[in-house]
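To close the section, here is one more complete example, presented without commentary so you can practise reading it yourself. The ligand is dioxo(di-mu-sulfide)dimolybdenum.
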Amino acid sequence: MIKDTYAIEGMTCASCAQTVEKSVNKLKGIQDVSVNLATEKMSVSYDGAALSGNDIEQAVEDAGYKALKNT
Ligand code: 9UX
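Output:
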């Protein structure tokens, strides 16, 4: 299981955060995702054999936001 945090850009209201969460949660292999609007952070844990960080970034982008992986 991989656990990463991302900075999320473009969220303005609580619904934005929910949209990001739902979009990422749809991906197969996600174990847990949690988005904090105030800190603009997303914590995610997932099965690295099922998907990659790129897939997660793409899902956030498709939802209309931007995800930058914290190193
Ligand atoms: Mo809130 Mo976010 O009205 O795209 S859903 S700003």
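Once you have examined the tokens, check your reading against these statements. The beta strands are 2-9, 30-36, 41-46, 66-69. The chain has a mean pLDDT of 98.
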